Amino acid sequence: MINTLLFDLDGTLLPIDTDEFIDNYLKLLASKLDSIIEPKDFIHNLMSSTYTMIHDLNPAKTNKEVFWEDFLPRMPSDKKEDLVRIFDEFYNNDFPALSRIVNKNPVAAKILNSALMKGYNLVIATSPIFPETAILERLKWIDALDFPYKLVTTYENMHFSKPHPEYYEEILDKIQKRPDECMMIGNDAEEDLAAGLLGIRTYLVTDYLLNRKNLEIKCDHCGSLNDLLDFIDKLKEA
Description:
Helices cover about 40% and strands about 10% of the residues. The chain is of the alpha/beta class and about 240 residues long.
């Protein structure tokens, strides 16, 4: 019996065009470092290290460790000590401005509240390529920060990333649940529906559907965010 719901964030609970968000994020972060490195070079290095982090399957290193070990050697040697500080300042002071591109919608908080009232465990299973500060900030944008989540995946606490099955295996291990007890809810046909490979039920949210590889869509349920609210409302109590 399902008793735990795993929610993707960007494009699912957070009503945002992921490509638009990433584009604005990269430009804003690059502008904070333009005195150190050319924006186009910085973005190239950042994306390369992010790719390395996403596809690294070493269980002994967190995503954060993999990212910084790959990223720092790419940057000017005399500025390495400043980078972590600049990144921290960016996420604390500048990142919140990106909320301007969110299409405000109260339904996400209603979905979480309905699931919680029915006794379901809640997990934020977002791509763990951002620090906790950035992920918690995005939860603020949908009034979803103060729910009693069993886990919020971040680059500090995870060792794998979507779409690798190891990402979902690590979540199951952390929350001590079996695949048949969980449902993954997301908008990405590759990253989120990969949970189905482990026997986790899946719900594909179609408002900001992503299917970059034109994959055959195999999910247990699908619908808009409003449809999801109706679906959650009709679930039996956990």
